[in-house]
Amino acid sequence: MGYTLHYFPDNASLAPHMLLRELAVPFELALVDRTADAQHSPAYRRLNPHGRIPVLVDGDLVLYEAAAIMLHLADSHPAAGWSPALATPQRAQLYKWLIYLTNTLQAELMLWFYPLRFTDDPAGAPAVKDAMGRRISAIFSHLAQELTDRPYLLGDTISIADLYLFMLAYWGYGLTPPALDLPALRQFAACIAARPAVQATFAAEGLKLPPA
Ligand SMILES: N[C@@H](CCC(=O)N[C@@H](CS)C(=O)NCC(=O)O)C(=O)O
């Protein structure tokens, strides 16, 4: 039986979607129409009570949280090499990066994208957005620094953390400067964007790849 990924274009489903295509496993996409608030429909909330996208259905398993979905997929197809073996130093680094990206960078990006959700004073929202933009730009500069001495977060081998970083950096187009204008991140993104599976994902979601 194949997988079903509940997605919306350019949402947190983008990274698991890229991975499914990289793995070349059978899967279906199920659109969660955010324009109609479908993520809060009773049917979708049965899959994810938090009303967030994505969800992966794998037989009886219903899984939300993009990074958990990617770990599950990568571990289910170890020969494809998207996650290092358990209990190795490289695996520990993978945990570090995935948790940093989701727990710190992605969480801060949410404040930047949606400052009105985080204040009862709408007049304060622009200041929240400005402050978050500065914090997030500093994070991307740090990540660009990390990537000056190696092509991928774990070294010479691509992993699910790189697909995750690519998604978050893509979301950072509205920063000053855009995340992908940082030379090391631009080079990193160009490598990822050259992958046929990534190109197929962007085409399927109707997204424009970042310029090389
Ligand atoms: N930590 C979650 C975050 C998921 C998330 O916040 N998804 C957004 C789209 S990028 C969403 O569903 N938002 C719907 C809403 O806030 O109503 C993950 O990575 O899966």
Give short descriptive properties of this protein.
binds glutathione, single chain, 2 domains, Glutathione S-transferase Yfyf (Class Pi), Chain A, domain 2, four-stranded mixed sheet, 212 residues
Ligands in the model, by name, code or SMILES, are: glutathione
**Global morphology:** globular
The secondary-structure element order is EHEHEEHHHHHH
CATH architecture assignment name of the largest domain: Up-down Bundle
Helical stretch count?
8
Spatial strand sequence of the major β-sheet: 2-1-3-4
Q: What's the average pLDDT?
A: 97
Distance between the termini: 37 Å
- Tally the beta strands: 4
Helix content: 40-55%
The number of distinct structural domains comes to 2
Q: Which CATH class of the largest domain is shown? A: Mainly Alpha
Our estimate of the beta-strand percent is: 5-15%
Radius of gyration: 17 Å
Q: What can you see in these coordinates?
A:
The relative contact order is 0.13. This protein has a four-stranded mixed beta sheet with strand order 2-1-3-4, covered by helices on one side. The longest helix is centred in the middle third of the chain and has 25 residues. The chain contains eight helices and four strands. Helix 1 runs parallel beside helix 3 and helix 1 runs antiparallel to helix 6. Bound molecules: glutathione. The site of glutathione has 10 residues, from loops.
In short:
It is globular and about 50 Å long.
SSE topology:
Elements: E1 3-7, H1 14-23, E2 27-31, H2 42-47, E3 55-58, E4 61-64, H3 66-76, H4 89-113, H5 125-146, H6 160-171, H7 183-193, H8 196-205
Parallel strand pairs: 1-2
Antiparallel strand pairs: 1-3, 3-4
The site of glutathione has 10 residues, from loops.
